[in-house]
Design brief:
Elements (H helix, E strand, L loop, with lengths): L9 E6 L4 E6 L2 H6 L2 H13 L12 E6 L13 E6 L6 E6 L3 H7 L4 E5 L6 E6 L2 E6 L8 H12 L15
């Protein structure tokens, strides 16, 4: 796992309107004050999304954050948090999910991902360690989830081996 113990100390911010990204450092004191992915996501949400922003506005954001145990051997440590303004209620929404996303994001060197802006066409985000790309997804538009998964799997060469653990990442 990257330096910083359970926290990586970096957040990846992707602007879909510009097709750009930047890596931001997060002070360890912030992680200590707002413990876990839910706390950090809430902090970012309330600092960056104005009350008047509507859920489907370009100014809304999707904030994905992992916690200190994400990607470890602790049971249930595949969780990550997502915060945004809810399309249903128009107020703060925080949800958690499990699976590969949280650990993969952390193994790539990021404790979180903030997606902002609105892409002018369908895109997908490719994150391979420090290689981050906003890719054209026009060919994927209208396909089923299974078809998209298969296409991206072939395009990216998945499964891959995690460099640090040596484990093969499989379906």
């Amino acid at each position: 796992m990257p330096d910083g113990g359970g926290y990586v100390g970096k957040v990846l911010r992707v602007n879909l309107s510009k097709g750009s990204y930047q890596v931001e450092r997060v002070e360890e004191a912030i992680f200590e004050k707002y413990l876990g992915g839910r706390g950090i996501a809430a902090k970012i949400y309330f600092e960056e999304i104005a009350q008047e922003v509507r859920p489907l506005d370009e100014a809304n954001k999707l904030i994905f954050m992992s916690g200190p145990l994400t990607g470890t051997i602790v049971p249930g440590s595949t969780k990550f948090q997502c915060a945004t303004k809810s399309p249903e209620t128009g107020i703060y929404l925080c949800s958690n999910a499990g699976g590969d996303f949280g650990p993969h994001l952390k193994f790539a060197g990021y404790g979180g991902l903030i997606i902002e802006g609105r892409a002018p066409k369908p895109v997908y985000l490719s994150i391979n360690d420090d290689k981050v790309k906003v890719e054209d997804a026009t060919e994927l538009w209208g396909k089923t989830t299974g078809e998209v998964y298969k296409t991206l799997k072939e395009k990216t060469g998945y499964p891959q081996k995690n460099r640090e653990s040596g484990l093969e990442l499989i379906d």
